[in-house]
Specification:
Low-confidence stretches: none
Shape: globular
Helix content: 55-70%
Largest sheet: none
Number of strands: 0
Order of helices and strands: HHHH
């Protein structure tokens, strides 16, 4: 695999894009009445989780999941509005904006933080 593809933030972005596309397909499946869209959604979710798992080698799980889900919430809100004509109140938009601010803050403070803390010689119970 190309070295640039193994960058954790690129993997996370790919996971997010696949999750968004999968969610859009899930909406189009109409409760699995259109099974092709439902199967496509499940396949994209599977690949999305695989990419998310790869990012966890480099990005702490809480941070990676917060960014994955936060951007997913923002992205699917935009898709819902513009692709599916769903409305959004000012309060809903404001709270989603708070999620986006949190995601940006997490990415800024976590840019180079290791996913795994250094090993310790301390043994539990000793």
């Amino acid at each position: 695999m190309a070295a640039w593809l193994m960058q954790p933030w690129i993997l996370l972005a790919g996971a997010i894009l696949l999750e968004l596309t999968g969610t859009a397909l899930l909406k189009l499946s109409d409760g699995f009445r259109n099974p092709a869209f439902g199967v496509g959604a499940l396949a994209l979710y599977g690949v999305s989780f695989w990419l998310l798992a790869l990012t966890l080698r480099h990005i702490p799980v809480g941070v990676a999941y917060a960014i994955w889900s936060g951007i997913g919430i923002f992205g699917i809100t935009l898709l819902g509005r513009f692709a599916f004509g769903q409305s959004l109140s000012w309060a809903q938009g404001g709270f989603i904006a708070l999620i986006v601010v949190g995601v940006i803050g997490l990415q800024i403070v976590t840019a180079q933080q290791p996913a795994h803390p250094p090993a310790s010689n301390h043994k539990p119970g000793v």
